[in-house]
Amino acid sequence: MPGKKNYERVLKCLKEHVNMKMDFLIAWEPNDDKICPSSVASYFHKKGVEVSLCSPTCTPTKEYNIGVPPLTVDYQDLMEWLGCLLLGIKFQKENSVEDFMSSYELPQGCVHNSQVTLLQWSGFFTTKQLQDLLKTLRKYVESRSEMLWGCLHVQGFTDSPVSWNLQEHTFYTNGDNHYTIFIQPNKKFLTCKAYTSGKLLK
């Protein structure tokens, strides 16, 4: 925001390095519904900047007959389960024994034979878009009392220059920069946030 410390700092750096060539991702939401969001592309095009539209992509997936943990399990077990689901790792059947040294075991108390719908969106989203999505998800979950829960997982760019609270994002160390909001039909929720490490490489 103009006048703010970080805005002025970025503006000063850009003005001092005008000969640098770099790519930018820009998301703009006009404060008037009559203004087309794509007008920002027209503005930069007229300034001689090469512009291309980056459209978000969605990959829908359905999983059947898997164990889903309740939100009462340890949050680390819950996030590990969600991570396995996002990575496409197949869960072993209940009471089955695998011939591997390292097999993932479902958390205690899982509801088995559940169906899970996963919508993975990739793109550059504004805060308002995420807020609207969260409202839609909340309304959906609250209208289905048979659901255990629904969740919104937001993953930041691994090479983002800043992390939470405008702290330096030391992505050479671990690059964690995400949060997850779990919502239950009874309006209870759980929030998990991952911070990047504050330790610098020596």
Automatic annotation (TrEMBL):
Cellular compartments per GO CC:
multimeric ribonuclease P complex; ribonuclease MRP complex
Question: Which segments cross the bilayer?
Answer: none
Biological process (GO), any one:
endonucleolytic cleavage in ITS1 to separate SSU-rRNA from 5.8S rRNA and LSU-rRNA from tricistronic rRNA transcript (SSU-rRNA, 5.8S rRNA, LSU-rRNA)
Gene Ontology MF terms in the entry: ribonuclease MRP activity; ribonuclease P activity
Protein name per the record? Uncharacterized protein
Taxonomy of the source species: Eukaryota, Metazoa, Ecdysozoa, Arthropoda, Hexapoda
